[in-house]
C-alpha cells in the first residue's frame, strides 16, 4: 500500500512539473559517439518526447534517414524498426573517420477559404482552387543530425549543403569535453545566421526539478560558444523564420537539431 501511494504521488509530481509544459522534442540518440575496434556498430534510438532521452510520446519516423560515411558516400541503414514509443536502427561503421546520420525534411502546408469554409492542405505542392481567399502557404524545413567517429575524427561530413539551417562545427562535434569551450556556427542557406537563439538541454530532465538549459545567441557571423558544465548527452536546437522560400508567397521556417556527447576531460 505504501509503495502504491508513493508511486501515485511521484506520478502526480511529474505531471504537475513545469517541464511538462514544454513542447515535445525530436531527437536521435547514438549508442556512442566515439568508437574504436576492428568491427564497430552504431545503434541509434529516435523518438519525440518531453523528457530527454526517455521514450514516452511517439517514435520518430525513419523515412529519409541517411547515414553518410567519412568518404561522403551513403552508408546502409540496417535493422530499422519502429515501435510504439521509439524507432531504432543500426549502422555498420566499416570506414575510419566521422560519420553523419541525418534526417532532413522540407514540407509545405497551408490553408485557404472557399466562401466561408476554411480548407487546409499538406503536401509537395499547394493545390489552391481559383477564387480562394485568405490563402496562406508555409514551408517548414527541418534538419536533425548526429555525428559519430570511428578512430580519428575527419571533417568531410561536416561540410554544409547550403540548404536550410545548418550547423558548421569549428570545434569537432566528437571532441567535446566537460569544462572546455566549444565553438560552432549556424548558417541559413549557406550564409551566416546571426542573432539566433540556441537552446541546449542536458539529458535526464525526467530526474531533476529544473531544465538546466543553456541559452546563447549567435554573433553576426553565426558563431556561438558553449562551455560544457558536465559530461553527458546534450540536445541542441535552433530555429528561424524568414528567408527565401522555394514556393512563391510562402512563409518559411527552418529548424536545426543535434545531439552531442560531452566526455570527461
Write structural notes for this entry.
The protein is mainly beta. It contains 1 helix and 19 strands. The protein has one helix spanning 2-16, and strands at 25-30, 34-35, 41-49, 58-59, 66-68, 74-75, 78-82, 87-92, 97-114, 117-123, 133-150, 165-169, 181-188, 191-192, 197-202, 214-217, 223-227, 232-241, 251-262. The strands form 3 sheets. Strands 2, 5, 6, 9, 10, 11, 15, 16, 18 and 19 form a 10-stranded mixed sheet that branches. Strands 1, 3, 4, 7 and 8 form a 5-stranded antiparallel sheet that branches. Strands 12, 13, 14 and 17 form a 4-stranded antiparallel sheet that branches. Strand 13 (181-188) and strand 14 form a beta hairpin.
Overall spatial form = globular
Q: Could you name the ranges where pLDDT drops below 50 across 5 or more consecutive residues? A: 1-22
**What distance lies between the first and last C-alpha atoms, to the nearest angstrom?**
46 Å
Structural class: mainly beta
Order of helices and strands: HEEEEEEEEEEEEEEEEEEE
Counting H and I runs of at least 4 residues, what is the number of helices?
1
List keywords for this structure.
disordered N terminus; five-stranded antiparallel sheet; ten-stranded mixed sheet; mainly beta; 6% helix; 265 residues; 1 helix
